[in-house]
Amino acid sequence: xxxxxxxxxxxxxxxxxxxxxxxxxxxxxxxxxxxxxxxxxxxxxxxxxxxxxxxxxxxxxxxxxxxxxxxxxxxxxxxxxxxxxxxxxxxxxxxxxxxxxxxxxxxxxxxxxxxxxxxxxxxxxxxxxxxxxxxxxxxxxxxxxxxxxxxxxxxxxxxxxxxxxxxxxxxxxxxxxxxxxxxxxxxxxxxxxxxxxxxxxxxxxxxxxxxxxxxxxxxxxxxxxxxxxxxxxxxxxxxxxxxxxxxxxxxxxxxxxxxxxxxxxxxxxxxxxxxxxxxxxxxxxxxxxxxxxxxxxxxxxxxxxxxxxxxxxxxxxxxxxxxxxxxxxxxxxxxxxxxxxxxxxxxxxxxxxxxxxxxxxxxxxxx
Length: 367
Hints:
The chain is an all-alpha fold and 367 residues long.
């Protein structure tokens, strides 16, 4: 899904503040800002539409077959993106919609995996690893798509980026279907000792069977790495925070979750403010702010994500799917702000787009 955000740079003409799109003489892939917003909205709408159906399917059929189906939808829609982009704008939008549909299955699957496969002492670690898929995807996509010696700027062209990702997706989801089991007790490689550790303390549960950085002036080839490096750090801090949340025993779970939430939300919100008001000439400071934002948000695994699994328990897949629903709303709102504000793709306009991120909602306190 993140491939489009970068390949749009390679697909169209080189645009800047003084060289805007000529709507009458533009190339086949020179999309206007409104058309780019539609492509983003299609994903958000697809995810919103799919959230509740996937929740029902997970409850009825379990994660193994349902998540595999979502993966195949993602694989096929990614593979046909270059064809639809070339021949049909409505089909291109439909492919993006299907990518959004598959994205709607992610967080509910995380909830089910954590509940069924993680021991109570390893919830933080499982959540940090499983919720790192977006960072891992960016770490893979951006260098592969953006480096001049690889795909996007090579003789193979930008369509090969989609074909490669579709192939990788097919392999990974096939591996998921082959290895995963909805019930750990039914896995052929499961031992009695491992099963006892997973189920210890859980008790019996009755349930049914289961690209703004370009405006700073960086080259396309470098932009991929500037996006991938912060995501790599985010991934590292996610894992560290998950392990720390599980291993720190001198603080209560409530205190740990409050501390981790404060780091994730307050620190990132403060540096979003700093990032928005740094001039273009201070691009290195902007990158430093971005690094701090990515590192601090990695602490969410020890915050509200862990809170969801510990409080909701067997219903955590539903709670995490609602977090996904809220994220989808942001996917819908952000392109709308870009469409309404960023007419010339200037730094000042992007500052206005970022301004809602400076303020974080207050955290609810539970007694």
